[in-house]
Amino acid sequence: MSEVTVTGDELSSGNPTEIKTTPGQDTDPAETREWLESLEYVLQAKGSERVKYLLAALEERARLQGVDIPIAANTPYINSLPADRQPAYPGNRELERRIKSIIRWNAMAMVVRANKEFDGLGGHISTFASSATLYEVAFNHFFRGRGPDGYDGDQIYFQGHASPGMYARAFLEGRISERHLENFRRELQDTPGLSSYPHPWLMPDFWEFPTVSMGLAPIMAIYQARFNRYLRDRGIKNTDGSRVWAFLGDGETDEPETLGAITLAAREKLNNLTFVINCNLQRLDGPVRGNGKIIQELEALFRGAGWNVIKVIWGADWDPLLEKDKTGVLVKRMGEVIDGEYQKYSVAGGDYIRQHFFGKYPELLELVANYSDERLSKMRRGGHDPEKVFAAYKAAVESTTQPTVILAKTIKGYGLGEAGEGKNITHQQKKMNEDELREFRTRFNIPISDEDVAKMPFYRPPEASAEMRYLRERREKLGGFVPNRNPVAPKLEVPSLDEYSDMLKGSRGKERSTTMEFVGLLRKLIKDKRVGKYVVPIVPDESRTFGMEGMFSEIGIYSAVGQLYDPVDRGTGLMYYKEAKNGQILEEGINEAGSMSSFIAAGTAYCQHGINMIPFFIYYSMFGFQRIGDLVWAAADVRAKGFMLGGTAGRTTLNGEGLQHQDGHSHLNSIAFPTVRSYDPAWGYEATVIILDGLRRMYGEGETAIYYLTLANENYAMPEMPPGVEDGIIKGLYKFSTREAAQSKEKVNLLGSGPILRCVLSAADILAEKYGISSNIWSVTSYTQLRRDLHTCERWNMLHPTLPPRRSYLETCFEGENGLFVASSDYVRAVPEQISRGVPGELFVLGTDGMGRSETRETLRRHFEIDAESIVIATLYRLSRRGKIAPRVVADAIKDLNVNPEKIDPLFA
Ligand SMILES: Cc1ncc(C[n+]2csc(CCOP(=O)(O)OP(=O)(O)O)c2C)c(N)n1
Ligand SMILES: [Mg+2]
Fold first, then answer.
1. Of 335, 355, 330, 336, nearest to 345 (Cα)?
2. pLDDT by residue (tens digit) across 142-187?
3. CA distance linking residue 458 with residue 102, whole number of Å
4. C-alpha 222: how far from its chain's center?
5. 3-class DSSP state of 285
6. Do 819 and 843 form a contact (C-beta atoms < 8 A)?
7. CB pairs under 8 A, 24+ apart, for 669-672?
8. Is the torsion defined by CA of 329, 331, 335, 337 positive or negative?
């Protein structure tokens, strides 16, 4: 134990008499009593605010005098709200208990039946069993429904593994049928069953938020709550009527994303946000903190971050004992027992609890002398006591300046008895034998006979029963059923390409990058009356990298409090770091996960708020798909829309930054995301065409997609758009030009993307001038989109073998071409290789497989063998293999073009 130096006299006399002592040791009880009596007097006479003030003043004074007071991160291991501050419960406890019991039964039956019929189908009983009270109190008294138009109310992140409980409730509410329950986890049946977890992708009129990749719900919830404020502060929608709830597991708090953004919530005073952490002390394998106390650990963290922390540890059964505990020994004992022991108490029975919990101190044994063992074993934990839970929720919604976290102590697998209550195996328990079912039925008083119990019938009380009426009446009062997602997307008028034709004219010789071209387009869109105010630029501290700093003063950076300081660069002209309450830019700091969460909030505003917000998330492409890929996956599941812009992309185009920055594979990563459409534009007009088409499809026509564009920082002259190429740009490929050799011996097709298209154009010149080889030059904006079209077409043809085959887009483009196709890319070879089968000849690919390094662009491109000379050599080599030219020509070219044939293989360099 650490030592505290009490310098009692120091404050008054300046002549300290130091007494070395340990915390908790009282060396002068009379003096202590005097101080405590003074405290009592002030509390009675002047109230708690005055007490707080005096204590703070004392602490400050002591610190100034050098007293090292330990930071009190924790409060005692008891409920934050004492029994005498508990509000009256407004509901019918008996009816609510009946409803909850029936929901418990149906949730359990759904999982056990599914696994009895199809072993290994999965599902979870014990998570909801532990959190049923936490949910039911909220369903009956707090969760606000989406209202008549479906775009208001609360936003609720349900813990993924508790989904059977939500289905069981929806069944009672009449929202889903028995057939749905029977087909739980069977989503390809005639009556499609229910998804394993909350997946808006699969149940778009039910689930709102995908939560089962643990740790994502909490960070998404924080940014959702902040985005609601952003909408309000920008005058777009008054969101004051909605609250964001996130129900989490205690094991889930080990995910870095869970806790990584909690300071933002406090800083932004998000009192519209409530976390409910179900502290059943267990995760999948065993205890969360067997040797410690997860509730205390989380309390310290959240308090430190500035949250309102409400602990709900003990049920009402403990109140009389706490009342009688005048010496504080019970509270002391509660505080010293660790979670592994508490878990043991939940399975070991009353005599064990008496011996090991109360038995530590004689006064405690005395306290429960007239309690039977059975009574001791039934003393509830706070999270299973509706009145305690209600008190906590009420305090949370009344919090005026802080987000609230409720730490509710429960028992995992509550009610499962021998089948798993409190046991380490309980998370995976999906089977129950007849005895266990009977016991469960009896414990929760479900009207199912002994003969029927093994069949596990679902139970719904008669329509006219008091339970059903109560259930419906509560939800009606609160604005309708939840969860409930409105699948109807509103439409938005978006600009047409014709109206933006000035963006297609090229740079008239000026050297520009695709990033600059994009920023120009973004500014134009923001000024556009139809869409401007809905645009949400999101940047993780990279605006200057992308040349966007001019936008700071134009449209402002969102800040809930405006700008409380005079920015250092205000005097430097028009451009300065302007923060404003109605600022439009979300400047998220160095935080790609938070930025992506903002993207998700903005990109789902169409279904959450009935407003088409248009996120443009602009970031270093290296730190996108590979770093926060799971959030992008969640964005796809949640049907988010918007634009992701991977800036300064390309393994060799971003040349000086070295291997941790140089992205040569985000287009490979992005292939895996079905809703993501990936593009690698070479010219400004390509980016314009893609973005305007994306706007039209997503917001004008309601398609669900995310557009991913890589943008580069290499400056070169941007050409004017050739006529008639718009469709090709969107589909992924078009013929940019043709280079005829004077006395053409051969013709090849050369493919290039992004800045590497210019290497391809130079290669075409060399091939024509030096080797008499003509070429078509194709700009490939998206290999991924081409491959998708190819697959769709092939699949249809395979399944309809007797009908005239459909032609892929590639087939129509390459009609009449054959022979050799050579592609060069700033990305790994696998990206262009996606279209190999769609090429009517041979596709030979050059790419940037290998780790990057700092160098000049030219040297890097030679290193990875994607530059003009390497393209020429590759073309000649493949022509020689096809017998079109002699190998000698290739060998001479290697020499003439100054390529070292013994250079190191870039793959492992
Ligand atoms: C990111 C991630 N990793 C692992 C899992 C697998 N998993 C599902 S539930 C679970 C344990 C959950 O424990 P806890 O968060 O305490 O929730 P409880 O069921 O106890 O309420 C694990 C490891 C997951 N769903 N997501
Ligand atoms: Mg847990």
1. 355
2. 999 999 999 999 999 999 999 999 999 999 999 999 999 999 999 9
3. 9
4. 10
5. coil
6. no
7. 669/625, 669/626, 669/629, 670/625, 670/708, 670/784, 671/784, 671/787, 671/831, 671/834
8. positive
- Which 3 state secondary structure label does DSSP give 832? helix
Task: Report phi then psi at 323, rounded to 5.
Answer: -60, -40
Q: Provide mean pLDDT across the span 582-605.
A: 98
Residue type, 752: G
* Residues by chain with Cβ below 5 Å of ion ligand 2: 249-251, 280, 282
Q: Which residues pair with 620 in a beta bridge?
A: 647
Phi, psi (rounded to 5 degrees) for 249: -90, 155
Adjacency order of strands within the sheet including 586-587: 586-587, 535-539, 614-620, 642-647, 706-710, 676-679
If you take atom 13 of ligand 1, which residue's CA is the nearest one? 283
DSSP output for 785-828 = HHHHHHHHHHHHHHH-TTSPPP--HHHHHTTT--SEEEEE-SS-
- Give me the helix-helix angle, 756-771 and 868-881, nearest 10°: 60
CA of 406 to the centre of ligand 2 (A): 14
Strands (E), 720-772: 733-739, 746-752
* Nearest protein CA to atom 23 of ligand 1, as residue: 284
Work out which ligand 1 atom sits closest to the CA atom of 213. 26
429 Cβ inside 6 Å of ligand 1: no
Task: For a ligand 1 pocket test, name from 161, 280, 410 the mutation site with the most ligand atoms within 8 angstroms of its C-beta.
Answer: 161
Q: Is 149 exposed, middle or buried (0-12, 13-18, 19+ CB in 10 A)?
A: exposed
% helix, strand, coil for the chain, step of 5: 45, 10, 45
Tens digits of per-residue pLDDT, 261-319? 999 999 999 999 999 999 999 999 999 999 999 999 999 999 999 999 999 999 999 99
Q: How far apart are CA 131 and CA 163, in angstroms?
A: 11
Answer for the pair 660, 621: CB distance below 8 angstroms, yes or no: no
Virtual CA dihedral for 466, 469, 470, 475, nearest 10 degrees?
170
Residue type, 81: L
Burial of 187 (0-12, 13-18, 19+ CB in 10 A): middle
Quick one: which of 166, 161, 158 has its CA closest to 125?
161
* DSSP letters for 353-367: HHHHTGGGSHHHHHH
Question: H or E stretch including 774?
Answer: strand 773-780
Helix ranges restricted to H, 696-752: 726-731
pLDDT for 23 equals 55
Q: How far is CA 252 from the centre of its chain?
A: 13
What pLDDT shows up at residue 192?
Answer: 84
DSSP state letter for 502: G
Number of C-beta neighbours around residue 94 at 10 A = 11
Residue that has been written with the tokens 């609890």 in this structure: 353
Q: What is the mean pLDDT of the segment spanning 359-366?
A: 97
User: Which residues pair with residue 539 across a beta bridge?
Assistant: 587
16 pLDDT exceeds 90? no
Q: CB neighbours (10 Å) of residue 49? A: 8
The pLDDT > 70 percentage for the chain reads: 97
Look at residue 664 and tell me whether its pLDDT is greater than 50.
Answer: yes
What is residue 13's predicted lDDT score, i.e. its pLDDT? Answer: 38
Q: Residue 630 CA: which ligand 1 atom is closest?
A: 1
Q: How far apart are CA 229 and CA 422, in angstroms?
A: 40
Token reading at 141: 């008294």
Contacts for 465-470 with beta carbons within 8 Å, 24 or more apart? 466/95, 467/95, 467/98, 467/99, 467/102, 468/172, 470/92, 470/95, 470/96, 470/99
- Nearest Cα to Cα of residue 314 among 374, 246, 387, 367: 387
562 Cβ contact partners less than 8 Å away, ≥ 6 residues apart: 579, 580, 581
212 lines ligand 1 (CB under 6 A): yes
Instruction: Read off the tokens for 490.
Output: 């509103």
CA separation for the pair 508, 510 (Å, rounded) = 6
How long a stretch of residues is the chain? 909
